[in-house]
Design goal:
single chain; mainly alpha
Amino acid sequence: MYNLNPADNEIMATMIGNFNDGSKAGKIQWGSAWWFLDQKDGMTKQINALSNMGLLSKFVGMLTDSRSFLSYPRHEYFRRLLCNIFGEEIENGELPDNIEWTGKVIQDICYNNAKKYFNW
């Protein structure tokens, strides 16, 4: 599911949980920030809304419908923003200062969750 209006972020993050029945972790995914939200503020607000209202650890991360080489910087930008968010929360004492745990969650969001979700 995708949204184009940042005012709907909390609704989207909450509503995707309505479809989870235990058959698959993160069964319904909230698509990555797209179109009007595909910039630092939009991506950050989406990640934070999903972290606060949903299940960020099962997020399949940044996807694209493009096979273009030019889409790769967008994925790198997403990873950097994600790492900054985790780093700031660790620095503020909001998450444990455990690099192994944090690294695993970030690796899952950036690669492992999509691999598992799409059965690759």
